[in-house]
Amino acid sequence: MKAVILAGGSGTRLYPVTISVNKHFLPIYNKPMIYYPLSLVMLLGIKDVMFIVNPEDMDSFKKLFGDGSHLGMNISYEIQKKPNGLAEGLILAEDFIGNDNVCYMLGDNIFYGHDLINIMKDAKREIEINGGAYVFGYYVKDPERFGIVEFDEKGNVKSIEEKPQKPKSNYAIVGMYFYDNRAVEIAKNVKPSDRGELEITSVNEQYLKNGRLKVKLLGRGFAWFDAGTHDSFLEAGEFVATIEKKTGLMVGCIEEVAFNNGWIDKDTLLELAKPLRKTGYGKYLIELAERA
Question: What start-end ranges are recorded for coiled-coil regions in this protein (predicted)?
């Protein structure tokens, strides 16, 4: 399985902060927002990752991640000329995905919870064995802002609707999707919505029509932030700060994940920590290496 992380868009919900800075570079507490979805992909053991980025941000992404070799990964990039909808990212990544299945992540979504990685691994395994699509639902108070999933009394999915004026439930589909290889062709056949965008909800609807969609609800014990608004951005940073201060462990530390995965050795970890040694982040990496 490969991973595609959508990190383009104009970030208008965070204006004026994002007029001159891509939102994915903004700090969620002590690290760039984009570190969080990347770290989850890495925790799944996925080394091949593509970022979908704006033309003007390509150099900045390459400065931050390069080709990924310093993390033991293979990172590549594809340009999205303008924000035409979430489903377009699958189309742009067609050559990269090739014949593989794909984990598709939104770069501004932050996840945390007990056993989250095992749940994601179960989804990955399900797609690898049986194909189809596997997505996650999360209870929200403002369902009109999201793609919403409706269930019957037995928990079966009845419908999915993008930003409904009259939501049929309070369960939003979060920005983490697992698809088999058919997702690209499905996305290519999606027609623009009334908003003029290629909606990821339309891709999920097609899987639902084919009887190939699984939805798992993330209930108590899980936190999800769509960090594309001022309030959610602030809440995500405060949440991460609280978790890290209470546990002494970092959330979304990509160098730590690479080291624990065995993708880089102790010397490489220390080399990566050198430029950061005056920060809490750098000291954390040094301590990690010393404990090893």
Answer: none
